[in-house]
Amino acid sequence: MDIQSKENKLKGDTGDKAINFSGSDDYLKSCPTLEQEVPDCAVLNYPCITCDRSIDCIYGNLYNYTCFVKPKIVCNGSKTFNRTSMCRFCYQTDKWEHRCDQKANCNSLASPLKYYTTNCTVSDDIICLGKRRFLKKIRCSWTAGTRWGTALILALTLGGFGADRFYLGHWQEGIGKLFSFGGLGVWTLVDALLIGIHHLGPADGSLYI
Questions:
Q1: DSSP states of 38-81 as a string?
Q2: Do residues 162 and 176 make contact, with C-beta atoms less than 8 angstroms apart?
Q3: 156-206 tens-digit pLDDT
Q4: Model confidence over 51-97: pLDDT tens digits?
Q5: What span, in angstroms and rounded, lies between the C-alpha atoms of 84 and 69?
Q6: pTM, two decimal places
Q7: How many helices (H) and strands (E) in the chain?
Q8: In what order do the strands lie in the sheet with 80-86?
């Protein structure tokens, strides 16, 4: 796929320069200074460098990017060097190459599966075209620290008193089990089975760990 044809408007807006990591001096907080051990310039990553590459490249192919060490950065060697990287926009990076803000206000156990849009940021060692922070739609998947093993043990040992339901946050059902002695044992067995097959989870919609 030709990225130039896909992002023709972007090229018109930005010209031939596709990557300019930052125009602020805030990067100095994350980059080497005279008070620190001085590294080689060629090993620096974002936000200490700026890498330029025209967007008229073929997606997936490897190209040389010309990288420059930003002003006020202290390092050894040439402050201009080449780095080989794939031609792709930052939003096209693999999931292990960027980190996304996780949300804990959705139901991870919902059927059909729930998705939400969040901000993702490319890892510092990745070179890509476009903005390094972008929106992505990801599956709702979070945990509050509830352990499946603990819930199952409670269901098998103290399920008649509703301990498993209380642990999972199902307070109303827990009270019902407590005063009905686990539904005379039937409710206890049913809950133990549902927890065992992961059908019954935490009340807040999170996943087991």
A1: --BGGG--TTSEEEE--S-SBTT-EEEEEEEEPTT---BS-SEE
A2: yes
A3: 999 999 999 999 999 999 999 999 988 889 999 999 999 999 889 998 888
A4: 887 778 889 999 999 999 998 888 899 999 999 999 999 999 999 99
A5: 16
A6: 0.61
A7: 7, 6
A8: 49-52, 62-69, 80-86
Q: What is the pLDDT of residue 36?
A: 66
Label residue 39 left, alpha or beta by phi (over 0 means left) and psi (-120 to 50 means alpha).
beta
d(CA 92, CA 195): 38
Domain spans, the chain:
29-87, 89-142, 148-197
Residues in CB range of 161: below 8 A, 6 or more apart: 177, 178, 182
pLDDT digits (tens, 9 = 90+) for 194-204: 999 988 999 88
Residue closest to 47 by CA, chosen among 65, 14, 73, 10: 73
Query: How far is the C-alpha of 85 from the C-alpha of 128, rounded, in Å?
Result: 8
- Contact (CB, 8 A) for 21 and 47: yes
What is the structure's pLDDT at 24? 59
Q: Are 162 and 187 in contact (CB under 8 A)?
A: no
Q: Give dist(CA 42, CA 81) in Å, integer.
A: 7
**Do the beta carbons of residue 133 and residue 176 sit within 8 Å?**
no
- Give the torsion through C-alpha atoms of 124, 128, 131, 135, to 10 deg: -90
Integer CA distances (angstroms), 140 to 16, 109, 127, 147, 205, in order: 38, 9, 28, 18, 10
